[in-house]
Design goal:
The chain is α/β, with parallel strands linked by helices. It contains 3 helices and 7 strands; from the N terminus they run E-H-E-H-E-E-E-H-E-E. The chain has a 3-stranded parallel beta sheet with strand order 3-6-7. A two-stranded parallel ribbon has the order 1-2. Strand 4 and strand 5 form a beta hairpin. The chain is globular.
Length: 147
């Protein structure tokens, strides 16, 4: 499961997880099935944390049982989605639900990691909600020449 507005990459599965049609998925063709998107809570768009969690409950009731969900992936700060921070209440609730159902919680930090948010990782702004895994790509010092 992923969130609307999120960007996770341009490979086949990461495009399926990306929560935007334009510019990434338009005219691309079939993507892997059973990747579900939840609304990302953005107050000024009228979407609350409660709305996001209600959508998750509805998915569990109507589309997929929790035991079949491998992971929930969230960007602690959506970049492509308009630079929106995940509320700490959302991250805490996702952590509880993931623990309850044996689902992995993944923080996608490709765009926000390595101190771009004032902390080493954006997920650190989420209180005690710790992910099971962190997706990252830019290594400190990766652009320096050795020696």
């Amino acid at each position: 499961m992923a969130f609307g507005g999120g960007f996770h990459g341009r490979t086949l599965l990461t495009m399926a997880m990306t929560g935007k049609v334009l510019p990434y998925k338009r005219s691309f063709g079939p993507l892997p099935g059973e990747v579900f998107h939840l609304p990302f809570p953005i107050a000024h768009y009228g979407v609350s944390v409660e709305d996001s969690l209600r959508a998750l409950s509805l998915l569990f009731a109507a589309d997929i049982e929790p035991s079949r969900v491998a992971a929930i992936i969230v960007e602690p700060v959506q970049g492509e989605g308009g630079f929106h921070m995940a509320p700490p209440e959302l991250l805490a609730a996702l952590r509880r639900l993931c623990d309850e159902h044996g689902i992995l919680l993944i923080a996608d930090e490709v765009q926000t990691g390595f101190a771009r948010t004032g902390r080493m990782f954006g997920i650190e702004h989420g209180g005690r909600a710790r992910p099971d895994d962190v997706a990252r790509s830019r290594l400190p010092g990766a652009s320096r020449c050795p020696g």
